[in-house]
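Input chain follows. Return structure tokens only.
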Amino acid sequence: STSEYAPIICIAAIANVCFGFYNMVNGVANGLGQQYVYAVIQVFGNVLAVPIIWGLVYCFGFNGAAIGLVVASALYFFPSCYFFYKSPFWSKISISFRDVKYFKKLSYFTLMLIVSAVTFPIVEIAVREMIIRGGGYGQAGIWQASIKISSAYLGFFGIFLAYYFLPHVAKEQDRSTIAKHVIKHGTAVGITFFSAALIFYAVRAQ
């Protein structure tokens, strides 16, 4: 029944708060040019996740696997706390509601994120339901797997752009230097992207 998954939904809500804290810490560290923070948090978070997920799957089966996937994203919270208290940046933050213009500028990005967070899951759920009605759960599973592979594949390049390229370019002032970085890294990323795409296409299931 649907009610048996209620605890998983509650755990997911708490995990989202923890994951949001991780994103905040990681975003600040990235803005300060401390790209290593992302790698360290990922390593320690995944090291913590492996035994916990294994134990949940072993003890609770399918429900344990569902809880484990949710808990895995929340475990980044603990290494994030270390960098949160270690960084002197947070003690320098002061919030003033008099600077309305800055809140107005940030509101555009907030609206963008809200729209993305709401529309994407709805569209994915709708498409999955259409595939289930038309082709069954097997076809829906294949489609969902392809989505996950695509997300992991594109996520690699997204991480490179967000955590290395953009901070590296943002500190440059000279346009010619920025153009050189764009051409250099864009060419490397483009070649890697299309090479990996050809490999995925070549080894696709027949």
